[in-house]
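Q: Structure tokens for this one, please.
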Amino acid sequence: MAFKLEWDDNATDMDLWVNEPDGTEVRWNNRDGSVGYLDQDNLAGGPEIYRVWNGLSTASDPVLGIYQVAARLVNNRGDAEFVNWKITAEMDGTTVWTESGVYTTNGEQSPYYNYDLMTYIDNGCDNEVLASLIAVEGDSDTKPGSFE
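A: Here is the predicted structure, written as tokens:
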């Protein structure tokens, strides 16, 4: 499982913030969590990617639960009037959820989006992973610009 933050201005620093199910906060100043890690603090143009540690099954107990994910505009050093951003959740290389927005001011942050990773039993024998987005906060109004 992975969460990826992308943005469209190379002169802008944005941060991906992830709160793991056990409450561990993973971000630019604490890149190693209890079940995952942030690949880098990219200061210009992204992306930043949070990944579950290799060797941990997405069906293992420590990995299961609610992940809180947010995007924060740290510093727009360029001439861009606004910065388009997108957070993507991936399971086994497949995009299962995307959220996007536009920032205009340093310090702006999205709400935390709650992403619930849980298991269920299929026919009483094999565990399969079921992921769902729950309790999404924020609005879904059309915003200026587009992420390309």
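A few notes: Confidence is low (pLDDT under 50) at residues 119-148. The two ends are 23 Å apart (CA to CA).
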